[in-house]
């Protein structure tokens, strides 16, 4: 994992500041999403109406790999209703919605050259793609270009409204990444002006307001988000996460207690509160919360996974295995579950358990072959099973895969220390100890190892 265990649990990425929520169409998926609604629903009402039979026919021809005929029917549709997107844009969207993500960019480039140079959507689509790929500078330039075109665009009021939302949503994300919180607030309020019923916008506004040291207003935005979407976390949970991000642990715990009092059966509330208690070292209280969570959310992967982690941290390895196996039954390919089981079982004196650990580690590496933490676990488990050569290959993959979580760094440090490379082992551990992102499962063991170096 490039992030810690806690950030892999199902808390909203929005509240943890980990990514863009609702960034527009997601292209390149394996399954097709090519329907009249997805293709022209942002331009017209009732896109499945017989008035748009040419669109339906274009989709049929496109699905039959006859792009030339598909374009012809799109041209007829746009000629009948000029409020539709330009033909070039529609062709690009058809590529993406049919799962051919690699063809979207070339199609958009062609669209801009042919009929879409003054349409904002090609630039918005490219900007959103750049943002998802963390190409922030490119995204910013494209959003700026789109914004200029939106100012003069008057062809379709429905499209223009959605363009404004997408442009300011993207700009707010860029401002947040750069910690320009006043700019983020301004962009978010423009987004909300266009769509006051968007819970994600309200949640993001709450985050920005907390970062501007206006917690009361931020909490009110979180309350509004919850009112708009019942699946949004309790407002006190959202506030607690922001207090934690700001290093205000006392305020975070107070907010978590209020959330627990209000919403004691809610999975997100229970998991977030338990995580915070574990991080704070209050294991007794965490056990109480997790006991309640298991009773009220018996089918929650996150509850059982976190329960297994808590038991492991307290040295109750049998209980940890029981909880983690329950997690595995709920999500057989989950990389955190596989990683935890492999690391847990390899410490057993029973050779059969160590072989099971190797099975879980190999499974994780097969399913998540580019993940550095998965590969570091595999290397460690192979080494413990006497397979040094294979461990070296897995270690090489781990190093090439990117940054490690604190627990991954600890395992790597153990291997370096065993090779008497104390200097690099010490650097890894010192860095891991300063990483406050989520739960460091083996933190006490890492401290003990660091003291020997």
TrEMBL record:
Single biological process term from Gene Ontology: protein O-linked glycosylation via mannose
Xref: SUPFAM superfamilies: TPR-like
Record-linked InterPro entries: TMTC_O-mannosyltransferase, TPR-like_helical_dom_sf, TPR_rpt
PROSITE patterns: TPR (PS50005)
One Pfam family this sequence matches: TPR_16
UniProt keyword Cell wall biogenesis/degradation, yes or no: no
Keyword Hydrolase carried by entry: no
Gene Ontology molecular functions: mannosyltransferase activity
Keywords carried by this UniProt record: TPR repeat
Residue ranges of TPR repeats: 233-266, 301-334
Classification via PANTHER family: PROTEIN O-MANNOSYL-TRANSFERASE TMTC2
The name this protein goes by in its record: Tetratricopeptide repeat protein
Species for this entry: Botrimarina hoheduenensis
